[in-house]
Amino acid sequence: MRQNEVLEVLESVASDQWGIITTAQAQREGITRLQLSRLADKGVLARSRHGIYLLPSAQHGALTDLRTAWVSLGAREFPDERWESEDKILVSHESAALIHQVGDLIPRRITFSSTTRKQTSQEDIYIYSNREINSKDIRNVDGLPVTSVELTVSDLAEKKIEFNYLATMVVDALRKENVRMKDLATKLNDAAESYGFSSGQQLVQECQREAASDDDREESIARYASLAEIARESLGAQMVTDLLKNNLYGSLPTASLAEIARESLGAQMVTDLLKNNLYGSLPTASLAEIARESLNQVSSKASPKSSEYQTNKKSEDIKKRQPPGYSPTPIDDEEELQADTGKTAKKENEA
Predict the structure, then answer these.
(1) Which residues, given as ranges, of the chain have pLDDT below 50?
(2) Where is the AbiEi antitoxin N-terminal domain (predicted)?
(3) What pLDDT score was predicted for residue 281?
(4) Which member of 137, 162, 247, 345 has the greatest number of CB atoms within 10 A?
(5) d(Cα 233, Cα 208) in Å, to the nearest integer?
(6) pLDDT of residue 92
């Protein structure tokens, strides 16, 4: 059999298998290991796993490794034969969550569930063996047998993943078409106690409260940013103060609060806000930044090193030396102040 004929046979039998072929499958079609090896050496085929090859028509993507892993666990059978068999190997747990796009768990290994006892020496694959899985909980996702969304979430809850991860997964699952809250809650009944709840329904409700969607969160941030911009550009300082006092911004990001305070409020107003703790739980770092940037004008005027402070002090000293009833003219007062200032400057130069 010529090379192009071998390739035609391989492409034909692997058309329903994402362009993936195994050595055992090829041998069933009369193609030897040596022929496969030669095609691989020429770059026509790509070696993926032991005894697994990718054809030129192979579908490359995020699920390629997962597909080749599934094929490798039933290397002799073709997909239609495996689907008809009672002994099934399904994508499950973290890998199923990845396929269904629920949650944000990153699988450390490719995870499968088998209805019989199944083992593998492949280190990147983990198999949950001897599982009883109802046919109603099996989904065909582009040719791959995958546990349903409800069972996938339940499986991971049984593993006692962290609650925040589970909450995100539950919220994502409920957005999926044909996933009903009642069905999901029923699946979670057994795992609910592990999280401190009496029922799956209670667990689902708490997950909904815990996990806000990323879209909603981004929308809130954008909305609050717009409010901050309006406050800075359109509102007077007193109105901004009132807004902060009444906490009308709700969960306005603290960075925006700090920016409003610095740009819209006077230094004294910021002082009052800080004294009365009107920022609530504003982080101390933000408070420090507000204090440094907004109160700098007040502190600089009160500093003994500032020229304004020294001039005012000189004026007060001169007034103390005047006799009772003395009312200096502006010129006298200015001349005496200049003279006194000159003496001070001379002493400083001599020193």
Answers:
(1) 247-249, 251, 277-281, 297-299, 302, 330-332, 337, 351
(2) 10-56
(3) 46
(4) 137
(5) 37
(6) 98
Tokens 């034969």 sit on residue: 81
Classify domain 3-60 at the CATH class level. Answer: mainly alpha
Where residue 270 falls (left for φ over 0; alpha for ψ -120 to 50; beta otherwise) is alpha
| Four-CA torsion 153, 156, 158, 162, nearest 10 degrees | -110
pLDDT of residue 270: 54
Q: Given this model, what pLDDT does residue 321 score? A: 57
Q: Residue 331 has what pLDDT?
A: 46
Question: Cα–Cα distance between 89 and 96 in angstroms, integer?
Answer: 12
Q: What is the per-residue burial (b if ≥16 Cβ within 10 Å, else e) of 328-348?
A: eeeeeeeebbeeeeeeeeeee
- Tallying the residues shown for the chain, one arrives at 351
d(CA 116, CA 132): 9
H/E stretch holding 342:
helix 330-350
Pair of tokens at residue 162? 């962290």
pLDDT of 213: 53
Q: Which helix (H) or strand (E) holds 271?
A: helix 267-275
Taking the domains of the chain in order of start, what are their residue ranges?
3-60, 86-210, 215-301, 308-341
What is the structure's pLDDT at 43?
94
